Structure prediction request, 351 residues.
Amino acid sequence: MEEEIEIDGSLFLSAGSLYPVVSGTVNAVEGALGLARYSTETCVQLASQVSKSALNAFLDAVVPITVNAVVSRVNITEIVIQHVDINAIVARANIEPILDRIPMAEIADYVIEEIDLPALVRESTGGVADNILGLLRFQAIETDNFISSVVDKVLFRNKTQDLEVSTKVDQS
Amino acid sequence: MTSFKQFRANFKSGEVAHFNVIPNRARPFQGKTVGFTSRFISVLIDMALIAVLLAGAYGIWVALRYVLGVFYDIPQLSGIPLLAVGYFLMWAYWTWSWATGGKSLGNVLMGLRVQANSGQPLRLGRSAARSLLSVIFPIGLAWAIVNRKNHSVQDVILRTQVVFDWTPLVSVEDQDTNA
Prediction:
């Protein structure tokens, strides 16, 4: 038991005497390794930065030309129509901003004008008074046309085209 | 069928009116001068309006006399003052109508408008003068039968004209600004 203790003690002592050397060596090696790693990292970073910017500059110059060259030789519309489900895209599109850009009032005016809504209203509900009034007006105009044609004949003058008021229904 | 694009262009240029209520067959002659018959009927309507006004005023007067107990007889009308009042009312009504939009009741019903030859609405002075001439010399309207521009004597003197204007009194634009 004692021997063992002695041995242990001697070992401990020797190890203890070696400790500064070992730790110094370890520190030196670690420092060297750290330096090496740092310099390597820096180098790699520098190199990668330089290569990246060089590559970017290269791509900036080349890609547009390339893409343009490719795109101009390809019918993109055709490709999109063939490969893209446009309905699905439209279905997912936010329609409100589009609607906000549509001139609704103008479209309403256009539709009203195209289907001649006022005429429809007049014909369907436009009261009797309106019709009688229209009749009276048109009859007065017809009478005036007749009078002016008679007057023109009596006075031997050419028909005054400017005053000719046509009440023929415009079919267009 | 005009396209929407075309319509927008026409609308911007003012070629298409906002909610055009004028019948298709009446559109071509809007703004042209009006012949004798329409104007004569218009005058008759205005005269009828004044007659109704006078009769109404007379009725109210009689009723007031009765209610107040002053007189129980129905007052006899003497022609000259009545005529004078009628003439004055007619003059005042036409002056006011033509200076404020160029349309008396008869004008509105017949779809006519009184304006200066330039197309401008009449100012109060010219409106009053035209009204006066129309009241004291109504036969002057008959010149519109012969005149090639449908001008009556009043129109010739005062450089006014009567044109077709079937737009309703309250246009859609007015309603827009009121809303």
Remarks:
- The first helix of chain A runs from residue 2 to 72.
- Chain A has three domains: 1-93, 102-126, 127-167.
